[in-house]
Give the backbone structure.
Amino acid sequence: MPDRTLGAAELSGASDVLRRRAAGLGLTGVQVTPDANGITVSADGDSADPLSRLADPAQLVLRPVAAFAPSGVTAPPPARPSAQAGNGTTASATPSATPAASRPAVASPSASTAPAPAPGDIGGAFTGDPVLSKLQQQFIALDCSSATQRHDYQSTPSRPAVACSQEAKEHIWYKFALGPAAVDGSDITKAEAVLDEQNADWQINLSFNGHGTAAFADLTGRLAAQQPPANQFAVVIDGAVASDPRVSEAITGGAVAVSGSFSEQQARTLAAQLSNPKLPATFRVSEVNTLHS
């Protein structure tokens, strides 16, 4: 059900988006029927889980990182594995990434090779920037280890925001202070779920349009000249940070691969969502039906 009343044209458009998302997931026997109460979607076989995710917002933005810290702990945790995103290279947790011009740069879930600062120990991350300075107290107060505080703080893409990590790393949640969005989902022309056979991880390969390519090159070029953690960008999906790679040079190829401990189903679902326009309203799933042939 949508969070507001939709007109006939909006219902038709939303139905088309859901139909294309279902096709991208490879579902068969898909039936999408709009009515006065919302939209009913059904498919053959045991497809309840992917059906229930079709209407997720899947709003993606790329934001520069101003600060990050473990959340809900009193001492710095062990360092997380590092990753780099570079133009025409495949990043990994080692410094020996090999050139692969035909592949997108990889954005892997990582940050600085040094331990993250303890909560409240954020150095000069907020000094000298009057906009970011207003975020400081919110960042310090945020406790991502509490499920009640892990929600979407990204209401205004043009303004800085805080965010929690999408999941805990080694049982530790991370919190982030992020600058304004530089690239968003409207700049994506293609999203594809791919298995990285070298690391046995599922990732999502993104391709940007001209505007997104230029914006991403500008973002990564600016970040590459900064010191950690200001040389990192966050891949924020539905308000949570899925990945926070550091960059060493501008990425100009208009493509990036995002890895974030995705399962195959998660990667395929997110790719199907990102490949299509966003829905005109927020939908709440009230019931999931499957048709068995």
